[in-house]
Amino acid sequence: MTWEPVIGLEIHAQLKTRTKMFCRCPVGFGAGENTQTCPVCLGFPGALPVMNRRAIEWTIKLGLALGCEIAEHAVFARKNYFYPDLPKGYQISQYDLPSCIDGKVLLPAADGDRLIGIVRAHLEEDAAKTVHVGGRSGRIGGADASLVDYNRGGTPLVEIVTAPDIRTADEAKRFLQLLRQTIVELGISDAEMEKGTLRVDANVSVRPSGSDELRTRTEIKNMNSFNFIARGIDAEVARQIRVCESGEEVRQQTYDFDAATGTLTARRTKEEADDYRYFPEPDLVPVQPPAELVESIRAELPESPASRIRRIEPALDLDRATVLVTGGLDRLWDETVTAGADRVASANVIANNLVGAGVDASAVDAGELAKLVEARDRIPRAAFDEAVGKLAEPGFAADPYLAQEAVSDIDELGPIVDRIIEENPGQVLAYRGGKEGLLGFFVGQVMKETQGAANPRVVSEIVRQKLST
Ligand SMILES: [Zn+2]
How many Å lie between the centroid of ligand 1 and the Cα of residue 173? Predict the structure, then answer.
């Protein structure tokens, strides 16, 4: 029997509002522990919450970008549970009446576009940050002490819940990259996984291929990069298939994925909604955004990343278009092409060389970049790399680099190629036996030998000729 994974995602994005969700404490990293707190976010008796208008507008903005309906009447509730990072003993969160429902996100894919359903996007406050000291890998088990920093407590957090519409780990990864870029471009969150401003949990189950049943699912937490998420999902899918094929049943369970060892560790049994004793927050009025407000926010929405991928795909291919758009690089690409550079070469230079050199794409002059792209085979590789590294510097000019010429002289390069061939008999044999990919190895050796001064295209021709005789 073959099995089909059924994957849903829960994404938390921390909003970068100036102040917290229900008080006027500043939101931000880097301040000393427990310095950004007040009676409201520390849960002192009698302190009253006041809604952050901007957080509500941004949630509506996100909901619209995800194709959601915006509720005319949303309600904050108390989600009751005890934990040291939750000083009130409850979290204020939208529950059965969230601000955004029933959305759809288009995910461009090689075999046709996919629509991923958005069940809801709701607003809540973040918990404080607990740090376990002295234990293994920061977990509570085996720790000597646990410390709580309440600075994060009360920060506005949007939770996005997808329908179980995702079918592969790779699709989950591509969806998340697209969603992250959408959030960043709306200007509502930095959405950085390594800083915890974007957090993702995956709900995973498997079913016989072709069936439409939804089986018991498990939840994977604690994954802090898109690649780890994909690997965590793959590991859990493989585990569930083993369980099912051995005739047993998958049990509802939460797992932590350890990326270093590729293993899943079971956590606590998941609480049911009943355990939280949700009830409407009596200190807050319902959220009832006027229709004009919603429409004015809708009118401000930028073109979505998905639509840009589809727009530029015909000029490139899906993969290149996706890398450019989800990297926030497509505008620079567009301007570079308009300035006269080749489409595919520009995409490659931007996605590989520029990103590899850590250059800030928003500070690059597309006209200068276009000159470099066009000259890339003519000038020495070393000069090209140096120029790319300096592209974002104020007043950067490509001309001095364009004046340099790569060594294309066959009389000069021929003997070097001969020597490299002589020194690598094994690779020569393999190449002649059909491993043509080794051409790059020989070119690379010559480039190294000439310290990047040779013209790689000419070197490639010489190597090819010499090895075919
Ligand atoms: Zn506060």
Answer: 35
Cα distance between residue 135 and residue 127, in whole Å: 22
Q: How far is the CA of 32 from the centre of ligand 1 (A)?
A: 15
Kindly report, residue by residue over 451-463, the tens digit of the pLDDT: 888 888 889 999 9
Q: What ranges do the domains of the chain cover?
A: 3-297, 329-402, 410-468
Q: How many residues does the chain have?
A: 469
What CATH number labels 410-468?
Answer: 1.10.10.410
**CA 151 to ligand 1 centroid distance, Å:** 8
Furthest C-alpha separation in the chain: 88
pLDDT digits (tens, 9 = 90+) for 115-148: 999 999 999 999 999 988 887 767 777 888 999 9
pTM above 0.90, yes or no: no
Q: What is the DSSP letter of 217?
A: -
| Cβ neighbours of residue 232 closer than 8 Å, sequence gap 6 or more | 202, 220, 223, 257, 259, 264
CA 100 to chain centre: 22
pLDDT tens across 203-234, in order?
999 999 989 988 999 999 878 899 999 999 99
* Cα gap 110→183, rounded to integer Å: 24
Residue in the structure block whose two tokens are 């609480």:
271
53-65 and 169-186 helices, crossing angle to 10°: 130
User: Residue 224 Cα, ligand 1 centroid: separation in angstroms?
Assistant: 27
